[in-house]
Amino acid sequence: MTRRTLGFASLLLFFLPLSALVAQDRAAAYLEQAHLLGTAERLRVDAQLAITTSRGTQQRGIEAYLEQRGEGSAIFAQVQSPAFLRNMKFLVLRQDSQREDVWLRTSHGVRRVAAGDGDTAVFNSHFLVRDFSFVQPLDFHLSIVSESDDAVVIEARDPRDLEDTRLYTINPGSGLVHGVEYLDAAGGVARRFTVMEVISEGTVVIPRVARMEDLRSGESTTITISRYELPATIPSRIFNRGNL
Which DSSP string do the residues of the chain spell out, in sequence order? Predict the structure, then answer.
């Protein structure tokens, strides 16, 4: 091998990791601007959960609040019907891209959900706690699978957990996440989140109908918003742990 060939090979080896870092940064930038629950700064909704299993379909009415501020955000949801399940509540407090606290209240009381318990079901549905958690770019290997004016597909792979690889489909214009595929260790799709219908009001886009499917069991949960508000403020007590 000539000296010129060696020099070219060394240069190529230098630029390959550099290009990988640029790709990771571009993918991270898309995810940082992405919105799973809509682009509203503040949102209150009434919605119906239809939880379909092999035993049939259960209906639950929920009330939910969302506030998004800079890197931080807060989510609070409570079952409203049937009445005997009204003690079921869910709270997510995200301080920034590195700090997040999650609580669930059930008939057994209030518990803080540890980072390793992300597979805990929310309201006994097919939505899991980790579905509402952010992807930390430093902890995930990120790459852009495809990119167009209508959709960008990002792969987020957790090198510490072979069961946590996600494919996000994001509208680059609004930033709304239109779908997420959760892959198993073999690369097959284990679960799939799909936004089926959206609401648009000015620059605000909200998923009106969305479904989480478990492709292994054939079961699913569909959430349908029946009423929404864009309040100027949300009382701080809503996102307080004491509200649980």
Answer: --HHHHHHHHHHHHHHHHHHHHHHHHHHHHHHT-BSS-S-SEEEEEEEEEEEETTEEEEEEEEEEEEEETTEEEEEEEEEESGGGTT-EEEEEE-SSS-EEEEEEETTEEEEPPGGGTTPBSTTSS-BGGGGSPP-TTTSEEEEEEE-SS-EEEEEE-TT-TT-EEEEEE-TTT-BEEEEEEE-TTS-EEEEEEEEEEEEETTEEEEEEEEEEETTTTEEEEEEEEEEE--S---GGGGSGGG-
pTM value is 0.86
Name the domain count of the chain. Answer: 1
Range of the domain at 26: 22-235
Q: CATH number, domain at 174?
A: 2.50.20.10
Note whether residue 46 is domain-resident.
yes
Query: Does residue 18 surpass a pLDDT of 50?
Result: no
Q: Which of 124-133, 137-146, 225-234 has the lowest mean pLDDT?
A: 137-146
